[in-house]
Amino acid sequence: MSRERNAVAIKAEAQRLGFLACGISEATFLEAEAPRLERWLRQGMHGEMAYMENHFDKRLDPRKLVPGARTVISLLYNYFPREQQREDTYKLSKYAYGEDYHRVVKDKLRALLEFIREEIGAVDGRAFVDSAPVLDKAWAARSGLGWIGKNANLLTRQVGSFYFIAELIVDLELAPDAPVTDHCGTCTACLEACPTGAIVKPYVVDGSKCISYFTIELKNEIPASVSGSFDDWVFGCDICQDVCPWNRFSKPHGEPRFNPAPGLLDMDRREWEELTVEVFRQVFSKSAVKRAKFAGLKRNIDFVKGQGE
């Protein structure tokens, strides 16, 4: 089979497995991203996320992650929920409503890689879901799945940005796709809406100022300087996506494993404030919220509660 026909077959299987979209790019050095990443790190915009400083070369060259790599297959997996939390309560980022996406999407990636090996032959490769030194958004943009918006998220005109990005890096040569153009135009909705000023200028996000950073990545005490600016978010934040005009085209996912635990969406403030270890384990046993641990989530709730007192 030709590299064009192989690409078509892989995209068809990705769609059958439930992926929102699949794009292909050549596994080469990310020359344009190198100085941007270096500058972002030098300015300390990663905060206490020291792991971002590691494996600099691997982040920019997939051939250092998978020897002999020829292609990066980028994939999108929808997580936009059919129903959302009640308005008057502490808020979780929508991606954390259901089962941890690392497990869900990784299972799909393994199935796709197995398909490639069965249909095409002995292909070496690795699957990545937001847990390795891979610049997910850069590869997705390069493969034509969308463009990097002013909030530094990957955006698409068809379905907005509420999806996970994942990759298969393989030693198989496939016909690459072409990038798409930027469609943010003069819109600055995300910059104006960010309550902590994390989007310091169009296309540049200071990770150390993001609510998601404070509520998930930061292990120490949340600084008093950001008190009053969390807008009830206690795990992650969706503000810059919620206000993005392109997300009016978001469609509900069809992944049962992303459905929220019973009662989660109806929890009121009192129930969150009285959350016990037992209830935390019951509700978030398979959730990405476990990353914050019970103590971290309680810290976040107490911090946000204190803002209104």
From TrEMBL:
GO MF term list: epoxyqueuosine reductase activity
Record-annotated active site: 130
Binding site for cob(II)alamin: 59, 130, 151, 154, 165, 212, 237-238
Cited Pfam families: Fer4_16, QueG_DUF1730
Residues noted as binding tRNA in the record, renumbered to the chain: 219
Domain of life: Bacteria
EC number in record: 1.17.99.6
Family listed: Belongs to the QueG family.
Catalytic class of the enzyme: oxidoreductase
Protein name (database record): Epoxyqueuosine reductase
Cofactor(s) annotated in UniProt: cob(II)alamin; [4Fe-4S] cluster
Binding positions ([4Fe-4S] cluster 2): 194, 210, 237, 240
Residues involved in [4Fe-4S] cluster 1 binding: 184, 187, 190, 244
Reactions catalysed, as given in the entry: epoxyqueuosine(34) in tRNA + AH2 = queuosine(34) in tRNA + A + H2O
PANTHER family assigned: EPOXYQUEUOSINE REDUCTASE
Cofactor binding note: Binds 2 [4Fe-4S] clusters per monomer.
